[in-house]
Structure formats: C-alpha cells, structure tokens
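Would you kindly consider the sequence and fold I have copied below?
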Amino acid sequence: MKNYVKVNHHLIKKETHDLLSKYYDLDDERGICTITYQIEKFTDFFDTTSAKRPILKYELKEALENVFLEIPKAYSFNFIMKINDYENYSIEEATDIFKENMRLIGLKNKRKSKNMKIFAITLLLIGILTLLIMIILNNTIFANSNNQITKDIVSEVLDIAAWVFIWESVTIYFIDKNEDKHKFLNAMKRINNIKFE
C-alpha cells in the first residue's frame, strides 16, 4: 500500500499521484480534480466569428482532451473558467454556450462514427467483390489456362487484397469507430461541475 494512494475507492500509483498533484488540485477523498482556466477575454476562449454563436476554440478542446487523458479515471472534474472580460456575454450565457459546445462535440462524434461505419461497410463490400472476382477468374478465364504461374500469382494477389479490405473494415467498424465515441462519453461522465467566474 505504500506505493499506492487511495482515491475515492480506487488505488493509483503514488508516483503518478505525486506528479499530478504538482500540476493539478486533487481532492483524493472525494476523487475530484479541480482545473482552473484563467482567461483574459471571452474571445480567447470562444471563436465568435465563424458561427452564429460562439464556438469553443480548438486549442481549448485539445487542452480539455489532454486533461481527460492525463488524469486517472478515479477523478471526476470541476472546471472553473475565470474570464476577466466577458465582452457583452453574461456568466449564465457563457455556461450555456459551453454546455451547447460540448453537445456539438458529441454530435460531431456521432457523425464521425456514422461516416466510419459507412466507410467500413464500403471496404467490406470491396473485399467481398474482390473475392468474387478471384473466384470467377479461377473458374472461367484461368480454368483452361496453361499458364499456372500467372493464375497462381493473380489468384494470390486478389486473395490477399480481399482479406486486407475485409480485415480493415472489421478494425474500423468494431475498434476505431467506437474509440472516439467512448472517449467522449467517458469524459462527459467525469465532469462533475463547470463554473464560470
């Protein structure tokens, strides 16, 4: 137990805990990591020029994602956004805009997941079609061919290509497609509180 720290019914390595506690405000008893973003102006946090309503800037999205990856899952998050100049937006509006942006990220992940599914199905169909072409060639054109070497090479190349398409589609459909979606959903579940000051 000397090498571990108890965090809200979880154990994390003491070395990891000590390093993270140098950078983040950790409440081990409640399992909460409080992260404070000090921002000068509202437009440092949100892009107000590219849409009807402010959108989280890419740098902040990336910073949030990195925090979710760095901090062990034993911790949930309290985010405190300290903005000195709200530039005609109220704290309530900023909170609502932030929450809407998190939902937008969720929609983007759903759309990306759907596109990955379509791409995976396309690859699967290409793989099956390649296998069918190989079978047809073997049973028609190459059936009476005297050139066995050409038949074997073409057959082997088509066979390998078909299985590469099929396995790639399986990887995308079952692994890659769900990775971002689960990462985002798990991150959202870990947000305990968001407060603008």
